[in-house]
Amino acid sequence: MTSPAAVPASRVLGVVVGVLALLGGLVVAVANVIVVQRAAEDLTTQVSLVRPAHVAIVPGSHVHPDGSLGAVVAERVDAAVDLYHRGTVDVILMSGAARAGYDEPGPMRDAALAAGVAPEDVFTDYAGFDTWHTMRRANDVFGVTTAVVVTQDLYAARAALLADAAGLEVQVLTTGGGDLFVREWLARVRGLWSATVRPDVATGPPIPIDGDGRDSWVSQR
Q1: Looking at domain 42-219, which CATH architecture does it have?
Q2: How far apart are CA 151 and CA 177, in angstroms?
Q3: What's the pLDDT at 190?
Q4: What strand order describes the sheet that includes 122-125?
Q5: With 142 labelled, which of 19, 21, 66, 213 sits at a CA distance of 20 to 30 A?
């Protein structure tokens, strides 16, 4: 009597990889559904429909080596400046990443100043390394409680979810469609984890959002 032939290791490996890929895809799909459904309220594409708030929060995005703003963050800054000039918000918080040879908040601030925003009304957060850091630090460091978050439609649901988890009451003004869809699908998985676990972020001394924005320009550098 002959024994059954052993299943080739390559076939076993293929099955394992397939199962893991299926589970991974399921996790991504479920996370995206949860994020979008939980954060679907209070989003608008129209500046005129935004209710007055003290602060506009502008999450950072790519800045070119010459200091000029990338298209995504330029849209956000322009929309926040529009809110400011309409009197819808009193101050703007520019939050992004800064490290040796790279700076997002500085050029964002400079663009707002060039557009006529008063220097004392522009705050910078140099440790907004991702959306969770931006929202959590807005509350913990700057004392923000209510705000308008300005971002693209693609990222709006995740921004709203994380703002809520950070203790902020926000409206989200969307400025365009956004790109990098696959990257955002994956980012929503991380965002849901952050909103659930609420990990600590680096803080430092408080910078009251009711103070002078210029105090934030160098205090974190």
Answers
A1: 3-Layer(aba) Sandwich (3.40)
A2: 9
A3: 83
A4: 43-44, 169-174, 146-151, 55-59, 91-95, 122-125
A5: 66
